[in-house]
Amino acid sequence: MKDTEKAIKSEAELIRQIKEGDDAALINLCQLYKPLINKIKSMYHVRYYDNQDWEQDAMIICHESATSFDLNKGKFSSYYKTRLTNHARSLVRYDNAYRRQALKQSISLETAKKNHILPLNKSFASIPEIPLSENIAILTARLSDLEINALLVGLGIKDQEDVINNLKISQLTLARARSRLVQKMRQTLLS
Fold first, then answer.
1. From residue 188, how far is each of 131, 180, 184 by CA, in Å?
2. What is the pTM of this model?
3. In terms of domain of life, where is this protein from (predicted)?
4. How many CA atoms lie within 13 A of 103 on its CB side?
5. How far apart are CA 78 and CA 13, in angstroms?
6. Do 44 and 91 meet the contact criterion of CB atoms below 8 Å apart?
7. Mean pLDDT by 10-residue block, N- to C-terminus, for the chain (191 residues)?
8. CB-CB contact of 181 with 147 (8 Å)
């Protein structure tokens, strides 16, 4: 009985410390509820969610729960368990949403080859036999200085306003250069 009272008092102290912004108290409180976190993690399977994701979410929810918990009402363990369970259920609902069913039903190319599953007949651009690095070298040799600047703007390396001001061109001129760049990319990389 004394151990239970001591745990409740230390839990209340940790919650007070978390409300004051103590990160170490948050880690200690999460360690205190590690068995609960592991139980909920084992109950709900979420695709592409690993242990680090669960622990991070559990810590975030623990922090939110501690900061919003009223020490004069109920038990923190029940409050935290409810919030963590609701979060896990939301993740499962999101994972099982109807519009994501196609992703769950997809299979890898290796599995398709192993099971002799043929792809749908759809027209697609064939991958050139020339290595991509050679195609890029050919493309850059074909580009003018203005088109190279348009490429750098498109890649986010240069700022559009800086290019317009440095080259003393209009926004329309840069847009036309971008259009020519796209045409040359299609001709060089897809043919």
1. 12, 12, 6
2. 0.49
3. Bacteria
4. 9
5. 17
6. yes
7. 56 88 89 92 83 91 91 88 93 75 74 75 52 77 90 90 93 93 85 65
8. yes
